[in-house]
Amino acid sequence: MTDLPAPLFDTLVIIGPGLIGSSILRRGMEDRRIARRLVACDISPEVRARVAELGIADQIESDPATAARDADCVIICVPVGAIAMVAAQVMPVMKKGAILSEVGSVKTTVMEAMTPLLAQHPDIAFIPAHPMAGTEFSGPDAGFATLFEDRWCLLTPPGHTPADAIRRVTNLWEMMGARVRSMTVDHHDRVCAIVSHLPHLLAFTICGTADDLADETRSEVLDFAASGFRDFTRIAASDPTMWRDIFLNNREALLDMLDRFIADAQAMGNAIRTGDEDVIVSRIKRGRAIRRSLIENRQA
Ligand SMILES: NC(=O)c1ccc[n+]([C@@H]2O[C@H](COP(=O)([O-])OP(=O)(O)OC[C@H]3O[C@@H](n4cnc5c(N)ncnc54)[C@H](O)[C@@H]3O)[C@@H](O)[C@H]2O)c1
Ligand SMILES: O=C(O)C(=O)C[C@]1(C(=O)O)C=C[C@@H](O)C=C1
């Protein structure tokens, strides 16, 4: 009989088994080469009970420190505003040489909050990751094992991070079907401001604008929304806590992108006002070209 290769991690701990955390757990349950033991930890008793019913973890804990004690890798999957607080709970008990990761949608402010903790615990490798995958749904029922398939996962490891730890986190995401790229926290936050955070801001806003016109158009909004508007409503159905934290933590990059967007939208408005067909058509063509390249890159 041939021995099976050792799993990538002996014990992998997911703190916050919501959409993202439960998707990692589901993939880990399906592919036991990822971890021998999968531990889930959540602050919410309802979430813990649901994770138990779904059978997507080998062990379920309510206390992050208890969950993290024997971990080879801990991944914090809670809203951005709570990541550093959870890190402060687990780092003092984590093993020397263990890996700490998180999946937050913003990196600069998390790294700032983590800097003093990292100085106190130099034996823990901190490797922030951000899977560019998700849906408008939250919670453990929303996750699925193929969520990261063919999606990008962006890593923002600090400069001194051991190469072996980066390799293991890269392997983890690749085993879940993702493509991995490393970048600085600043670059990450600017890229995400334009590809993810501004589109959400626009979706929440356009739904509000339509709702404010309710007297004139309420029934039309509901009746005829099987059009462009419907695609905005999917994004606008996203979780308020998650998006509050993203907007407040990526304030500068997001406001910069918003200013650019407002200038471009005004330019389009002027072209419509003055009947400048060339400007109108060239902008529409750029949109179509971007959609085509997304499809070619298998991202749409
Ligand atoms: N939803 C997406 O599309 C998406 C994509 C990529 C990254 N992210 C990021 O991933 C993280 C999780 O997002 P999600 O959509 O999976 O959220 P979610 O709401 O589905 O799950 C978050 C879980 O964290 C738990 N939690 C909150 N505070 C906690 C604490 N202090 N201790 C322990 N558990 C706690 C909640 O009870 C919940 O079960 C966020 O930082 C988000 O920015 C989200
Ligand atoms: O597909 C969606 O519904 C998402 O909102 C996913 C999405 C995105 O904007 O692309 C949202 C936030 C994350 O940080 C990464 C992915």
UniProtKB/TrEMBL annotation:
**In Gene Ontology terms, what is one molecular function of this protein?**
NAD+ binding
Under Enzyme Commission nomenclature, its number is: 1.3.1.12
Task: State the reactions this protein catalyses.
Answer: prephenate + NAD(+) = 3-(4-hydroxyphenyl)pyruvate + CO2 + NADH
**Pathway of action:** Amino-acid biosynthesis; L-tyrosine biosynthesis; (4-hydroxyphenyl)pyruvate from prephenate (NAD(+) route): step 1/1
User: What is any one GO biological process for this UniProt entry?
Assistant: tyrosine biosynthetic process
From the record, give the transmembrane residue ranges: 6-25
- Residues covered by the Prephenate/arogenate dehydrogenase domain: 10-300
Keywords assigned by UniProt?
A: Amino-acid biosynthesis, Aromatic amino acid biosynthesis, Membrane, NAD, Oxidoreductase, Transmembrane, Transmembrane helix, Tyrosine biosynthesis
Q: What class of enzyme is it?
A: oxidoreductase
Q: Which InterPro entries would you find in this protein's record?
A: 6-PGluconate_DH-like_C_sf, NAD(P)-bd_dom_sf, PDH_C, PDH_N, Preph/Arog_dehydrog, Prephen_DH
Assigned protein family: Belongs to the prephenate/arogenate dehydrogenase family.
Designated name of the protein: prephenate dehydrogenase
